[in-house]
Amino acid sequence: MKVVERKVSAGGGEIFDLDEFLSRPLFAHLAHVSEHGPRESPVWFHWDGATVWVIGGDSFPANLKREPQCAAGVIDFDVATGRCQHVGMRGTAEVLPFDVAVARTIFRRYMGPDEADWDRRFDDVFDGSAKLELVRFTPDTVVIRDQSYTPTAWARERKQGPDKP
User: Fold this and answer.
1) Which of 41, 60, 73, 131 has the greatest number of C-beta atoms within 10 Å?
2) Element housing 30 (H / E)
3) What is the structure's pLDDT at 153?
């Protein structure tokens, strides 16, 4: 994996750590090609230090089997603080058999360590009734950008969430 850009857009501060950034419970946006053109899938993921692991259902694993070249983007943005950090990756995906241990690693990241507290709508992921595969995305190139800025007074007063537009 080659980091082709590591940039802070303003202020001359230090760039954030890639591994720490990819350990946050953020969504990745997996870009891939379908038979009908480009597609983008927001996904939960696990970064193991070299590859991105994703649980796949029906559509994008089939697309990746046909065309394994893809890209992923991860953004951490908060209008109230002005944090705007981005990692973009381009590389190759492999579709592998489903592995419950990897799935649990991904779910812990987003739902916490107590499996008894996880939303029951996801039980099919672990009981074998869902038809799932794993995607292992290996980035060839990575862009790391920090485009954070000083927020306005209006932005600092805002709170993100479903009840706040």
Assistant:
1) 60
2) strand 28-34
3) 87
Distance CA 16, CA 7 (A): 10
**How many Cβ atoms from other residues are within 10 Å of residue 63's Cβ?**
22
Buried b (16+ CB within 10 A) or exposed e, 129-159: eeebbbbbbebeebbbbbebeebeeeeeeee
Amino acid (one-letter) located at 48: D
Query: What's the rounded Cα separation, in Å, for the pair 139 and 39?
Result: 18
Query: What pLDDT was estimated at residue 160?
Result: 57
Contact partners, residue 123, CB within 8 Å, separation at least 6 = none
Distance CA 91, CA 138 (A): 6
Q: Token pair 């058999």 is at which residue?
A: 97
pLDDT at 47: 98
pLDDT digit string (tens) for 46-72?
999 999 999 998 889 999 999 999 999
